[in-house]
Structure formats: C-alpha cells, structure tokens
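Appendix B, Record 12. Input sequence as logged:
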Amino acid sequence: MKYTNYHSSKPTNRIDSINSLLKKEISRIIMTQVKDPRLSNWVSVTDVKTSKDLQKSTVYISIMEEKASTQKTLKALRSASKFIEAILHKDLSLKRIPKIDFKLDNSLEQAETISKLIDSHKP
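Logged structural output:
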C-alpha cells in the first residue's frame, strides 16, 4: 500500500493564506492609519513572505516615485512597523503576529531593464 501524506501541503496553504491576509491588511493600514509625512502616496504592497514559524514577514513594497522619495518612504514604513504590528495584533485573530521587515520590490525596474535590453537587440 502506498502512503500518501495529505498534510504536507497544509503548511504551505496556511502560510499562503496568512501572506494574503497580511498583504491586504498591511496595505489597508498603510493607506488609512500610517500618518508619516515621509510616506509616499504611491506605495503599494506587492508581496508578503512569512517564515514557516510565523516569526517574521518580509513585506515587499513598490513605490512609484524618484529614488529620494523611495528611501524616505522605506524609512517611514520601517519606523512604523511596530505600530502596524500592534494594529494587526488588535484586528486579526492570529495567535502570533510576525515581525515585519519592509523591503523594496525591484521587479518593475528589473522588468523595464530587461525590456530595454530586448528592444536594443531587435533588428
């Protein structure tokens, strides 16, 4: 008889659900409750990756402004991370709220660079 482990995909599905929930809630909190003048109006949470032990979440953000504004916004979000974690703890029914670490999502810039490279090699 072949053994099938039906539980092997559960942690991934659970983490995916938590990532999706955190992405939605962190976006909402940034837009409605973080009041920092350094924060750009053009911030978007593009992805959330949470560790399996729920200790840490990396929150990837995209900012549609110049580099100077990008760095200011990133600093503002990093300084607001404890505030955001506290709101998540209050609003969500999760046993543990992970520590949030904000990182820039450079995928749009990378895609643009690749597109320019491809265009420059067209006959």
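Residues 1-9 have pLDDT under 50 and may be disordered.
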